[in-house]
Amino acid sequence: MTEKVNLKATKRIEFGRKTNKGRKVGLIPAVVYGRGIKTESLWVKKLDFERLIAKSGESTMISLEIDGKNNRNVIIYETQEDPVKGNYTHIDFFQVRMDEEIETDVELIYIGEEEALAVKELGGVLVKNMDAITVKCLPGDLPSEINVNVATLATFDDRITISDLKISDKVKVDIDPETVVALVSPPRSEEELSQLEEKVVEDVTKVEGVVKEEAPVEGEQKEEKPEEAKKE
Fold first, then answer.
1. Sign, Cα dihedral of 28, 34, 39, 40
2. At a CB cut-off of 8 Å and minimum separation 6, what does 224 contact?
3. pLDDT value of residue 133
4. Is 60 exceeded by the pLDDT of residue 138?
5. Rounded to an integer, what distance in angstroms lies between the CA atom of residue 141 and that of residue 99?
6. Among 28, 54, 58, 107, which one has the highest count of C-beta atoms within 10 angstroms of its own C-beta?
7. Residue pair 26/49 in contact by the 8 Å Cβ criterion
């Protein structure tokens, strides 16, 4: 059964641009909602939330304490981040019922790359085809993450598929069991690298040629198209 983690929050009455004041003092605006419950606006301490994510990831059951009481069983439904700074700017919590199944994404954690012979001895490149998979289960059975042990990849023909993942029978995964999750591709040969370099140079030359061709000569005025000419 998934271990539940705790997080404290306080009710929020600031909205719109006023939430920027809260962000400046280390708070993240959030909301909690769910089937049959009233949506509530909250503040969550930035440091507390970042610690939770670092320790348990985004796919985990949370006991959300609001104003020192009223604990809710929630999961993180969605987060928003600043595209430049990478800070969390908003959080959506979804309140769950422990007797009803939920469907959510669980992060895949790749381990054992340094032990994979296809990487270590053959010089291959690990290819990760998925970052997360969608699962369906009761909230209490929700895994916080799913490990993908790539140490078993000894040759370039080896594959790790969905069926190879260690997932509880209580967790449903509606993906073809033969779907490839990870593999190791062989390193590029010198000939392939040379061909790739030549193609890059060729593409750059073409782009530069087009730019030069379209650039107006100094002192020369661009010919005005008939439809652009001013009507007298």
1. negative
2. none
3. 95
4. yes
5. 11
6. 28
7. no
